[in-house]
Design goal:
Order of helices and strands: HHHH
Radius of gyration: 16 Å
Number of helices: 4
Distance between the termini: 52 Å
Shape: elongated
Bound molecules: zinc ion
Helix content: 40-55%
Number of strands: 0
Structural class: mainly alpha
Oligomer: single chain
């Protein structure tokens, strides 16, 4: 396999060729990431007990997007993560 050359040139989000090879994502996706990150961070500042689903619903982002930021951008939920939402217990 010799695909590591092209992998670095393409944006892993949208698959387009990046103009700036030093960034992880293309310019458009980097900008979208910044905006979505701010949205989630500011929501969590006002609602520190929110779970991932609530963040997704209230920021109008997809749950996968929220989980991606939690995992990759050092955002943390204070409420304990419940791996199976069907078993979530409400207080
Ligand atoms: Zn992109």
């Amino acid at each position: 396999m010799n695909n590591h050359n092209s992998a670095g040139r393409l944006c892993p989000h949208c698959g387009r060729i990046k103009s700036d090879q030093s960034t992880t994502f293309c310019e458009t996706c980097e900008e979208a990431d910044r905006l979505d990150y701010k949205r989630i961070r500011s929501y969590l500042q006002h609602h520190p007990q929110a779970n991932a689903m609530e963040v997704a619903n209230n920021t109008e982002l997809s749950i996968n997007r929220v989980l991606y930021f939690l995992k990759n951008k050092n955002l943390q939920l204070r409420a304990p993560e419940n791996k199976n939402p069907h078993n979530a217990k409400l207080p």
